[in-house]
């Protein structure tokens, strides 16, 4: 038995972890743009990365370390992705780490921002040299890693085990655009003091990515830098596999939902539940197609309960389906029922009221089996175009 308790606070509450964010001059107006996570003991580390074939230099740098390496330092910059920068991008990371005052063990770098520009090495080095590694300021860190985010994204839990021991786990992340259901899709840093075995870290990340970070979509684009990093210093000496897998799922789900809700210009966060599909693969494929459809997203923005766009997207996903078996609902309002045209003025008005909410569910019962999957998305409107048209400026 175990108890999982959400607690107020951030990763800096976990024993042995330190963090902060500063202004290194990468962003205008002295905005915070450079952060770190430091552990006073070596941490086991696992990660999942973007499936974009053009992975950024920080990801390539990480993968150059030996298997099962440990680290005590993560350096994170915003404004510059260090992607599509070739071998120089990796050389720049090594140059930065070799120039710092402190000799870290297998330091990790993570970057987010504009693709195709070389890192401003001197600014990053000078900024990093000013870090106080005994600082605990996760609020500053969360601000420093933001790009188009409108708010910081953090979560924190404590797990109490039956034997009286306990461990903490928390996360800080960024993500609002270039979010597509294709693993990771943002930057997320998860810290814990659980005494979790290395093999469980890897398995837990993989299993939980499928229904969290791999099930969200803002705009259908997958970034070059997407990273989920899990660090454990094992200081609590406490562990329970079932508890750890469940609390990690909660942490990752929290972060994923905050990203969907903060989709660039988004006003609505929507769950797309596909149930009773013939296969799990069909359920997953249809749910992700719905969360990723521009026509569906724009209908959500216009608060238009256009079930035709829902049905069309399901059919276009090429799963096994039958219009005489399909049932489509907005929350509990059925708008299409097994081939029967029931979408009258009264039902449309009820569905419209659902779409006026900030959060709701669209349920699609395929009627051909027992498998289900839920994907998550948001609406897409004028603000998204405005943000991304001016992104580099």
Automatic annotation (TrEMBL):
Which residues are listed for substrate binding in this entry? 147, 174, 185, 264, 388, 393
E.C. number(s) listed in UniProt: 2.3.1.35, 2.3.1.1
Xref: CDD domains: OAT
Q: Which Pfam families match?
A: ArgJ (PF01960)
Cellular localization per UniProt? Cytoplasm
Query: Which GO terms of the molecular function aspect are on file?
Result: L-glutamate N-acetyltransferase activity; L-glutamate N-acetyltransferase activity, acting on acetyl-L-ornithine as donor
The protein's matches in SUPFAM superfamilies, at most eight in alphabetical order, are given as:
DmpA/ArgJ-like
Marked site: Involved in the stabilization of negative charge on the oxyanion by the formation of the oxyanion hole: 112-113
The catalytic activity, as recorded, is: L-glutamate + acetyl-CoA = N-acetyl-L-glutamate + CoA + H(+); N(2)-acetyl-L-ornithine + L-glutamate = N-acetyl-L-glutamate + L-ornithine
Please name the Gene3D superfamilies in this protein's record.
ArgJ beta chain, C-terminal domain (3.10.20.340), L-amino peptidase D-ALA esterase/amidase (3.60.70.12)
Q: Where is this site: Cleavage?
A: 184-185
Q: Which InterPro entries does this chain map to?
A: Arg_biosynth_ArgJ, ArgJ-like_dom_sf, ArgJ_beta_C
Q: What is its main location?
A: cytoplasm
Q: How does it assemble?
A: Heterotetramer of two alpha and two beta chains.
Give a short account of what the protein does.
Answer: Catalyzes two activities which are involved in the cyclic version of arginine biosynthesis: the synthesis of N-acetylglutamate from glutamate and acetyl-CoA as the acetyl donor, and of ornithine by transacetylation between N(2)-acetylornithine and glutamate.
Name recorded for this polypeptide? Arginine biosynthesis bifunctional protein ArgJ
Q: Which organism is it from?
A: Malaciobacter marinus
The lineage is: Bacteria, Pseudomonadati, Campylobacterota, Epsilonproteobacteria, Campylobacterales
């Amino acid at each position: 038995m175990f108890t999982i308790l959400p607690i107020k606070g951030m990763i800096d509450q976990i024993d042995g972890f330190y963090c902060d964010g500063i202004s290194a001059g990468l962003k205008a107006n002295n905005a915070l743009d450079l952060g770190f996570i430091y552990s006073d003991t070596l941490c086991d580390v696992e990660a999942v990365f973007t499936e974009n074939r053009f992975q950024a230099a920080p990801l390539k740098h990480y993968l150059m370390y030996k298997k099962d390496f440990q680290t005590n330092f993560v350096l994170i910059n915003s404004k510059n992705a260090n992607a599509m920068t070739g071998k120089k991008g990796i050389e720049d990371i090594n140059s930065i780490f070799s120039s710092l005052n402190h000799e870290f063990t297998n330091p990790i770098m993570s970057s987010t921002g504009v693709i195709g520009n070389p890192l401003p090495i001197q600014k990053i080095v000078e900024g990093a040299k000013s870090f106080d590694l005994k600082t605990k300021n996760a609020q500053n860190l969360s601000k420093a890693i933001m790009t188009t985010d409108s708010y910081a994204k953090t979560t924190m839990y404590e797990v109490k085990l039956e034997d009286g021991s306990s461990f903490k786990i928390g996360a800080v992340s960024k993500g609002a655009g270039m979010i597509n259901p294709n693993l990771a899709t943002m930057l997320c840093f998860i810290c814990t003091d659980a005494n979790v075995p290395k093999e469980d870290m890897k398995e837990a990340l993989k299993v939980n990515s499928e229904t969290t970070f791999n099930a969200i979509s803002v705009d259908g684009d997958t970034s070059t830098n997407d990273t989920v990093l899990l660090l454990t210093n094992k200081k609590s000496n406490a562990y329970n596999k079932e508890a750890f897998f469940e609390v990690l799922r909660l942490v990752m789900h929290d972060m994923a939902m905050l990203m969907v809700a903060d989709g660039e210009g988004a006003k609505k966060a929507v769950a797309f539940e596909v149930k009773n599909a013939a296969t799990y693969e069909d359920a997953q494929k249809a749910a992700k197609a719905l969360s990723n459809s521009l026509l569906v997203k724009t209908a959500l923005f216009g608060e238009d309960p256009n079930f035709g766009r829902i049905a069309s997207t399901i059919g276009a996903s090429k799963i096994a389906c039958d219009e005489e078996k399909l049932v489509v609902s907005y929350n509990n309002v059925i708008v299409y029922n097994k081939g029967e045209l029931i979408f009258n003025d009264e039902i449309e008005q009820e569905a419209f009221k659902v779409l006026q909410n900030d959060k709701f569910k669209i349920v699609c019962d395929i009627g051909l089996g027992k498998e289900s999957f839920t994907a998550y998305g948001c609406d897409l409107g004028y603000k998204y175009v405005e943000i991304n048209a001016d992104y580099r400026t």
